[in-house]
Amino acid sequence: ITAACVAGVLSLEDAITLVAERGRLMGSLPAGGAMAAIFADETAVTAAIADCQDQVAIAALNGPANVVISGVATAVHRVASLFEEQGVKVRHLTVSHAFHSPLMDSILTPFAQVAGTLSYHRPRLRLISNLTGRQVQGDEAQTAVYWRDHIRQPVRFAESVAQLIADGFTHFVEIG
Description:
The chain has seven helices and four strands, in the order H-H-E-H-E-E-H-E-H-H-H. The chain is an alpha+beta fold.
């Protein structure tokens, strides 16, 4: 949201509205769920969660062998244990909620409703999307669905950074 504001997609006021609404809605969810970083590749993690996708999702792709899963605590712990038994490093994350997981589904519609009331503009600066890992094209970031998907879809951090490096950037600041 910060990058979209700087790029001109959102005004400061609309960005604040989006951040506040996202925080309010996430705060309204019951506590619980879990997240874990699995130091394996996306293919292996995707296969491991295939039978429990209604409870666990990939939340972030942070590197070629750094995938975060999120969801119902028992299912996340079960998947993490499978990797630990194979000698794969796992780090359980301390979180208030299972972000980017099926546990976020109940807030998607109300968030999209608020996002639908905002004014969007084409980016004035190059903007790399963490939803796709590539540069935002056309009016892609100008819909409520695009912003809703940031709550539920995986953060493609590694792909976004790789795109920036390919574009010649050498210095980075992460704001979260």
